[in-house]
Every structure is written in C-alpha cells, then in structure tokens.
Amino acid sequence: MGSADVVPGVSGGTVALVTGIYDRLVYSIHSFIKACPKLLTPNCKKAVPELQLSFLIPLACGMGTAILTLSKVITDCLHHYPQQTWALFLGLMLGSVVIVSRMIKEMNTYYMGLIILAAMSAYLITISTPFETPTEVSYFFFAGMIAIVAMILPGVSGSFLLLIMGKYEQIIQAINDLRSGLWSESLSALVPFACGCLVGIGLFSTFLNYMLKHFRAMTMSILLGLMLGSLHKLWPFRTVLLKYDLGLDHKVRVIKDTMDWPDFSVNTTWYAFAFMLLGLILVLGVEKLAGKDLASD
Fold first, then answer.
1. Which residue, of 1, 100, 127, 243, is most buried by count of CB atoms within 10 Å of its CB?
2. Predicted TM-score of the model (pTM)
3. Distance CA 143, CA 207 (A)
4. Predicted confidence band at 250 (pLDDT cuts at 50, 70, 90)?
C-alpha cells in the first residue's frame, strides 16, 4: 500500500482490494476510531483489543518503510523512463480492475449504471483544474476530510484532490514553516487539517464498513467505477499542456495533457507495452498468492 501511495494515480486502497485485506482495513480503522474514546474510561483495558493494533501497526510500518525507500526510486524512474514507468502503473491498475470486477458476483443493469456513474465522477475529478480557496480554518478542515477519504478509495488520489482545492501548496508550506520554527503560521493550517482528517476517516470508515457489510455488490461497483474513471491518467503516451509547480524540490504535477496514439515505429513504445503486460501479470500473481494465504488462514 505504501508503494502504491508513492505512485501518482494509484492508491493504497487499490492494493488493499487486490490483496484481499480491504474489508479488514476498513473495519480496523472503524474499530480503532470507535475504541479511542473508551481509553479515557475506567475500563480502558477492555478497549485495547478493539484498537486492532496487531493489524494496523505492522501495516503502518510497512507503508512508512515503502514511502521512505521508494519515493526517490519512483521519481527517478518517472524522470528517466516516463513511458515505461507509466505503462507499468497502467498494467498494475488494469490487473486491479480485472480483480475487482470478479468481486461483483451478479452483474446487472443497476450495477452497470453505478459503475458508469462512478467512472464519470472520477474522470471529471481527474481533469479538473485547480482553483483557489480561502485560508480560513473551516476550509483546511474540509480539505482534510476530503483528502483522507481519498486515501481509502481506490483510484482517487488525495494529493490531487488537495491540489484541485488549492490546498496542496498551502499544506506543504505549513509543513515547511513548522520545520523552520514558525509555529503560529503552520499550526493555524495543520491543526484544522489534521482535525478534518480525523473526522473524515471516522465518519467515512463507519459508512464504508456498513456499506461493505450490507450492500457489498453495490459498493464494489462504485469502487470499480472509480478505478475505471482514473485509468486515462496512467496512459503512457501523452503530451503535457499544463504543469503545476508544487513548490517542493522542484516537483511538478501535470494538470492538463492529451492522450496520444503510440508510435509503433520506435522501440520505446514496445518496451512500454511490455511493462504494461508485466504490471498486469504482477497484480494477477499477487491476487493468486493472496488467495492462497487467505485460504490457508
């Protein structure tokens, strides 16, 4: 999941679906949030098992390790081998789409409609142009709620949503101010943002946990649609029309571009398709291994 969060356009939620831990992830987050207030009561010891720490701590450690070790590798690959790297990401997502589609046991017109609606929503989000929002506390709180929800949903990038809302650079600047010792400026943005994240993850994990238990096929249809709607962002052959300076180590985010038809007369195009196939095989292989592990458990 940490490796996926490093990749633009691929979310940790997608990996959780592929490896078969998505339900447990949502339930664990919901249980953790629900149990936290109980720690302040006299019977706090009884609440400890409800925190799901045996699952969440190793997961968080693995994600953190991957983010710290792979961020530079991914950045270098995108800079030196952009077509092959994006093709690999697209293959990974295509494999994920195949797997999630299998989770919908009985496809019908209703579920197809949900898939199309979710795909259109994700597509509109990914082609949106950033806009400026005020710097009041309420806007940082709202941005935190939205960004944290995207962390759980497959195919939706939390950082991209922050960028659209005009809050990405403000949050990065607040973090830099905190490092520089400018506490008042940074905390005025980071505290409401963090509170929004807590409220957002608490409310959404409860909602998603309920939906997975009672309306699983409908929920999976929506998740599949979100993944399908974001696929176009991973197409490796494209021309950049507009880039956004993130103000962090000279990194930029592509805001607007066009999808190009591949030039089959050059070797790099065939290399890209080879990496796309590799990504597809990798994901299907991971699913098979995860299925065996779950069966043995």
1. 100
2. 0.75
3. 19
4. very low
